[in-house]
C-alpha cells in the first residue's frame, strides 16, 4: 500500500511561564526563564492512502497539536512529517481569520492553497451553499457561532479537494443535520482513497467512521492499530479515568509526564 503520512520521531516543545514578566524576560535572556513542556514526545506513526484514522486521548493529550503539525499550521520542534499530497485541516478554533468575512476567508484559504482568483470565483457558490451561511457570508467571522465557523471550515476544506483531510472536533459543534451531511461527504472522500484523520471525543463517531486509532496520552503514543483492537482498551481506560477525582487525574497526568521525562533521559 502507498503511504500517505509518515510521522517520524515528532516532538513539540512549548515554554511555560508562570507570569508575564517571565515571558518577557525570556525574550531578552532566552533559555533563562520558563519551563520546557513537551506536548508531544517522539511520535511515530504511518498512514496509508485510504486510511481513516481517529486520534483519541483525554484532554491535553496532544491530539490537536499533532493534527496541526501534520497540517503544517504548527511547526514541530524536532522529528519530521512526510506527506504524500496536500493536507487540509478543519478545526473550529483555527484556520479562519476572525476579522475577515466568510467570503474573504474562502478567498484567502484557496489562494494559499494555490488556486487562481478565477478558480476561486467558480468554487465559491458551492462552498457558500455547503456552509449554509446565507447572508452571513459577508459578515466578519468573529460574529459567527462555533457551529457556523465549523461549517465554513468544513465547506472550504472539502471543496479544495485535499489528499489528506484532517477534521479536528469540527463535527462536535453545530447541528446534527450538518454532521450527517459532512459524514456523507467524508464517505465520498473515503471511496476516493483519500486519507482522513478524525479528532473527536465522541466514541460513537470514532467507531462509526474510523478504521484505525491512534491513542495519545499526554504527548506519547499509548496505542496504534485497528479500531477493534484499540477502542475497547481506550474505553476501559476512560471508564476508570472518569471515576478519578480531579486530584487523582492531576496526579495521573504528572506521573505520566514524569515517566516520559525519565524515559527520555535514559535514551
Ligand atoms: N501554544 C501553546 N503553548 C503552551 N502549551 C500549549 C500550547 N498549545 C497546546 N499546549 C499544551 O499542549 C498540550 C496538548 O494540547 P492539545 O490541545 O494538543 O491536546 P488535545 O489532546 O487536543 O486536548 P483537547 O482534547 O482538550 O482538545 C496541553 O497540555 C496544552 O495545554
From TrEMBL:
Residues 245-267 are annotated as: Disordered. Transmembrane segments: none annotated. Residues 22-243 form the ABC transporter domain. CDD domains: ABC_KpsT_Wzt. The keyword Transit peptide does not apply. One of its GO terms (cellular component) is membrane. Pfam families: ABC_tran (PF00005). The keyword Phosphoprotein does not apply. One of its GO terms (molecular function) is ABC-type transporter activity. Keywords: ATP-binding, Cell membrane, Membrane, Nucleotide-binding, Translocase, Transport. Residues 251-267 have a biased composition (Basic and acidic residues). SUPFAM superfamilies: P-loop containing nucleoside triphosphate hydrolases. Belongs to the ABC transporter superfamily. This is Teichoic acid transport system ATP-binding protein. The lineage of its organism: Bacteria, Bacillati, Bacillota, Bacilli, Bacillales.
Amino acid at each position: 500500500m502507498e503511504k500517505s503520512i509518515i510521522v517520524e520521531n515528532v516532538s513539540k516543545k512549548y515554554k511555560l511561564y508562570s507570569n508575564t514578566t517571565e515571558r518577557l524576560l525570556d525574550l531578552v535572556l532566552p533559555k533563562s526563564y520558563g519551563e520546557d513542556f513537551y506536548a508531544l514526545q517522539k511520535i511515530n506513526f504511518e498512514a496509508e492512502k485510504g486510511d481513516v484514522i481517529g486520534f483519541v486521548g483525554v484532554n491535553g493529550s496532544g491530539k490537536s497539536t499533532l493534527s496541526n503539525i501534520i497540517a503544517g499550521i504548527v511547526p514541530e520542534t524536532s522529528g519530521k512529517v512526510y506527506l504524500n499530497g496536500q493536507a487540509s485541516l478543519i478545526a473550529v478554533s483555527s484556520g479562519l481569520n476572525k476579522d475577515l468575512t466568510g467570503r474573504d476567508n474562502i478567498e484567502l484559504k484557496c489562494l494559499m492553497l494555490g488556486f487562481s482568483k478565477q478558480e476561486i470565483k467558480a468554487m465559491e457558490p458551492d462552498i457558500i451553499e455547503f456552509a449554509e451561511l446565507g447572508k452571513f457570508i459577508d459578515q466578519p467571522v468573529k460574529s459567527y457561532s462555533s457551529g457556523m465557523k465549523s461549517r465554513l471550515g468544513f465547506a472550504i476544506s472539502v471543496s479544495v479537494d485535499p489528499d489528506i483531510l484532517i477534521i479536528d472536533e469540527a463535527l462536535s459543534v453545530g447541528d446534527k443535520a450538518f454532521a450527517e451531511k459532512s459524514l456523507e461527504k467524508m464517505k465520498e472522500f473515503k471511496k476516493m482513497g483519500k486519507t482522513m484523520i478524525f479528532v473527536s471525543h465522541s466514541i460513537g463517531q470514532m467507531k462509526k467512521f474510523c478504521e484505525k486509532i491512534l491513542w495519545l496520552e499526554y504527548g506519547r503514543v499509548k496505542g496504534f492499530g485497528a479500531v477493534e483492537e484499540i477502542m475497547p482498551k481506550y474505553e476501559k481506560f476512560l471508564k476508570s479515568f472518569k471515576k478519578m477525582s480531579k486530584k487523582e487525574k492531576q496526579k495521573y497526568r504528572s506521573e505520566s509526564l514524569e515517566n516520559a521525562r525519565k524515559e527520555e533521559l535514559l535514551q
